[in-house]
Amino acid sequence: MKRLLLSAFFLIVTIYLVMQTEFGHLIRTGNLEQIAAYIQSYGWVAFFISIIAIVLQTFFPIVPFVLLAGANVVAFGLWPGFAISWVGAVLAALANFLLARYVGREWADRKWGHHSFAKNLNKYAETKGFIVILFARWVPVLPSSAVNTAAGISKVCFRTFLLATTLGKGPAVLFESVVGHYLVHWEQHKGKLLFIAFGLCLFMLGISYVKRKKKLTLLS
């Protein structure tokens, strides 16, 4: 009961921040220049506001993470903005992971723990959880919240999740920070964005090819 009350309190506070505050309203509009100006107006406190915004975005993805990362780049510059977004993304993932583990793990064990699939999944999470989480962070179409929640209800240990997330989020957040910056200055970076989109398409096609090849190998 305490877990449910704590989780409900956390969600109520988060909803209030998103729906009833000026910054929450700006996040919902998705206007990067206004978000960046609002962040900058708070001076050194802006670092914490940016991190809070990323945590809120994890639970209520009203705007894509790439836009908040772009706003941070506009507000602080590329490398400081990237660092802030990286810290925020890791903290948001940890909050999501701990909430899933604190609330959902026992329920998931009772519901599906006796199934052979769940047992094999937990065994795999314990032995190869680091690699799975690390590479999951690098797949653009895989929602971060899905990775966090799945890890939270599995038996992967907290330290493994923290290390894999910290390392895996680095390249992903840097990429999204650069893309977000390009989106803000769309007119000057059309060619670069088209090149990135083409590269992502090739990447996804490559993943599909590897999956098909692996499947055919297993069937042969």
UniProtKB/TrEMBL annotation:
It is found in: Cell membrane. InterPro entries: TMEM64, VTT_dom. Residues 63-181 form the VTT domain. It is a multi-pass membrane protein. One of its GO terms (cellular component) is plasma membrane. Keywords: Cell membrane, Membrane, Transmembrane, Transmembrane helix. The chain crosses the membrane at residues 44-69, 76-99, 193-210. Its main location: membrane. PANTHER family: GOLGI APPARATUS MEMBRANE PROTEIN TVP38-RELATED. Belongs to the TVP38/TMEM64 family. This is TVP38/TMEM64 family membrane protein. It comes from Aneurinibacillus thermoaerophilus.
